[in-house]
Amino acid sequence: MFSDTVTDIAGLLIDRGDTVSVAESSTGGLISANLLSVPGASAYFQGGSIVYTLASRRAFLDLDRARVRELKPLTEEMVAEFARAAREKLETTWGIA
């Protein structure tokens, strides 16, 4: 059974015609798993990646390396960069990291 919160989010995304992409690091796929736990997730979930290492970030996200070097790991700013890159990479309405 999936949580009411995820079901509510899925309903809003579907109603609005919005799409989501995900870039996860320390969450290891849990965000994607929750979004995909709702039947019909393909209507809004476009894909995601676990970018736990530098190699995976370079392979799956188009990050501004100079900008990322300036940021501390696990900060709001770093997460925002990952989310932006995920959104741009898959051309979705929303990027989540």
Q: For the report, how would you describe the main beta sheet?
A: 3 strands, parallel
Order of helices and strands: HEHEHHHE
- Helix fraction by DSSP (H/I, runs of at least 4): 40-55%
- Compute the average pLDDT: 93
Residues in β-strands, percent: 5-15%
Strand order of the largest sheet: 2-1-3
Shape verdict: elongated
Compute the separation of the termini in Å. Answer: 24 Å
Radius of gyration from the CA trace? 14 Å
Oligomer: single chain
SSE-based structural type: alpha/beta
**Which residues sit in consecutive blocks of at least 5 with pLDDT less than 50?**
none
> How many DSSP-defined strands?
3
Task: Count helical runs.
Answer: 5
List the helices and strands and how they pair.
Elements: H1 4-16, E1 20-24, H2 30-36, E2 45-50, H3 54-60, H4 65-69, H5 76-90, E3 94-96
Parallel strand pairs: 1-2, 1-3
List keywords for this structure.
three-stranded parallel β-sheet; alpha/beta; 97 residues; elongated
Outline the structure in words.
The protein has 5 helices and 3 strands. Helices cover 48% and strands 14% of the residues. It has a 3-stranded parallel beta sheet, with helices on both faces. It is an alpha/beta fold and 97 residues long. The mean pLDDT is 93. The chain starts with a helix and ends with a strand.
